[in-house]
Each structure stands twice: as C-alpha cells, then as structure tokens.
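Issue 218. Parser rejects a valid record. Input:
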Amino acid sequence: MKPQIKWALAAAAVLLVGFFSLQQTGALWRSEATAPGGTVTAGTLEISAGQSGVKSFNLDGLTLTNADAGQSVQKPLPVINSGNVTMRYKLNSVDVNGSTPLMLRVATVNTQAECTATGTPGTELYNGAANTAFTAPQNVSAGTTEVLCLKVTIASNAQTSQSSNATFTFGAESVSNS
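Output the parser choked on:
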C-alpha cells in the first residue's frame, strides 16, 4: 500500500474516532485500580435532556413568532444524570443563525414549574448575547436532575422582518469522587 494511502486511512480513522467521541454522551468504566494519585472506580456517566435517555433535545417551545424587540420566551430544560457517577456539565456555546440579535439568560431552578413564562427565577449562570453564551461547569449527582431555565429575548436593536435560530452545545464529563 502506498504511504499516502496509509496516511489518508490513518487520518480518516482519527477523524472518525474524533467524531464519535464528540457525539458520545455516555461512558463506561469496567475496572478498579489504585494508584499513588487516587482510585479509579467503575461507573457509568449518562447525561440527557428533557426526558431520560434523550441525548438530542428539540426546544420547540423556545420560539417567538411575529414578536417585537424586547419580547422574550422562557422554558425549562431538565439536565438528567441517569448514570451512577457525579457528572459535570456546562453550556459550551450557542450558535445563532440569522439576522435577529438574541439575548440569552440561563439560570438553574429547583423545578420545571419555577421556570415560569415571565420573570427572572433561579440562580443566574449567564446573561448576555446569545452568540457569546457559555456557563461555568455545574455538578449533578448520580441519579438526579438539574433544571435550567432558558430565557431568549429579542435584542432591542432588532429590525423588523428578521429571523434567527439557535443551536445550544453542551459538554459533560465525570467527576472524581475523591
């Protein structure tokens, strides 16, 4: 086999592994070992949104139609740790496509019912332009749920006859129990 083909196949394999590692939201460890730095223990990390087992969640209710600058919509997003190890997750970014400038407020609330249609409930994690949004890491214990309250507001400088949509990207990892 020619060296160029070998390198192309190796690069394709690395890209494939990279793609799957970015898409994977669960991890399984099957062994336990003690080392001078600590203990690695078996566990399962699973994160989902909306309902148990869902890894891609459609925020249909987080929409505004025929709205004016300053109008907003607010909806809860449950983050579920259905695994058996503590996880750490965060909002990595929001990709806004379109011409309407959007503002975003992200807060944690105790229950979905606390994320009412209006107001500013909960503990604020982010408040600013949607296209620059990110949050600090949040820990969620095994078998529990944390509820995010997402509020999207049309920015005051929005023009008429514009539209935008947003894609939220979250990251998650297991947390050492030491």
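Fixed in the parser; the record now loads. The mean pLDDT is 74.
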